Amino acid sequence: MSDGNNHSNPFKIAQKQIQDCADILKLSRSTSDVLLHPMREFHVNFPVRMDDGTTKVFQGFRVQYNDAKGPTKGGIRFHPEETIDTVRALGAWMTWKCALLDLPLGGGKGGVICNPKELSNFELERISRGYIKAIGPFIGPDKDIPAPDVYTNPQIMAWMVDEYSSIVGKNQFGVITGKPLPLGGSPGRGDATARGGMYTLREAAKKVGLDLSKATVAIQGYGNAGCYAASLAESMFGSKIVAVCDSKGAVCCTNGICVPDVNAHKDKTSSVVACKGTEAMTNDELLALDVDVLVLAALESTITERNVDKVRAKIIVELANGPTTPEADEVLYKKGIHVIPDFLCNAGGVTVSYFEMVQNACMYYWEEKEIHEKLDRKMTRAYHEVFDTSEKYKINMRKAAYAVAVSRVVEAMKLRGWV
Ligand code: GLU
After folding, report:
1. pTM (predicted TM-score)
2. Same domain flag for 170 and 221
3. Do 96 and 167 sit in the same domain of this protein?
4. Any atom of ligand 1 within 6 Å of the Cβ of 318
5. Chain segment 379-418, per-residue pLDDT in tens
6. Catalytically annotated residue among 69, 73, 97, 109
7. Atom of ligand 1 nearest to the CA of 343
8. Among 114, 130, 146, 276, which has the highest number of CB atoms less than 10 A from its own CB?
């Protein structure tokens, strides 16, 4: 993750993207100054009782990047290499994501430095509760609403909502989204990120002239987003998944990977590596495969100057946040590769989170089918707004997404008299 170097520090990348957009939109210096900095951030150190009886201090962050358009919204990551700059970048990207989907929300993000793979379930619960106790005064259903992200899940959201409810002395389900269904979660939230990405892929394929029923797909990253992307690409379009990978390695099968087999293997061994009916390959080889669609569903800075020349896919589906660096972006654009940029492509998660907030507030829950239809409409509209802007200004899809989203945030800032 962030190492302080401008090329790989996600916040430096996020700031460069904002500056490029400010130039395209000809924003004033003061306006871009507001956009270039997080409005509020909290650094917390909180004690957690470990299973062996000792107490360990964990460090966490919550960044409320920009709330011009509404309460800040964004996930919480549990990661051993979490840094404040990563959280700042992700908070900025959430701001543009919510604006692009026209949600009445600002952007934020949280993170705790910890390695869930080395923690017991009880320790994970105590860390989740400790973090919420620490940031409790700064969040709320109309202030800042966290959700799941890397290495956090509905169970963790349930502990967090329970902790917050005991702090405020009443059930307060609307403070967090991505909850389990019995605790006010929304139907369709589980696969929302991947499903939203598939709706944008469907639209992109029409533009590029790609028949998805004959398309080959490689998937980098096999967590929540990547795993659902595999089954949805198959079930929605009949595409063939030819390679998948996780942090431990990649597997491929030119005749098509059996997705249920990979899922069962991953459940059993925590990895896709050595799944029956597949051959091993390296993660770098997967990125360089001659496939129609490359899904990036892991962490930030995956496609960089170092490997961008090798990418041969026709469409890149960015389900991860920040998987492509600005230098690599330029190269992909010149090569004519159609990139569906992260904060458009992966906005399905926060969009269904927003539906979850609405349902919590109304105490009335919708059918899954209704969620899918509403999500499809929002994703499809956002895709075409970005595509049309990219044609109009002759800029790549990411810059176009920035132009649409940042204009909306700036409009709200102006109306509020901030700039
Ligand atoms: N963590 C997801 C994202 O990066 C979802 C955030 C949310 O639902 O608030 O978009």
Report:
1. 0.95
2. no
3. yes
4. no
5. 999 999 999 999 999 999 999 999 999 999 999 999 999 9
6. 109
7. 10
8. 146
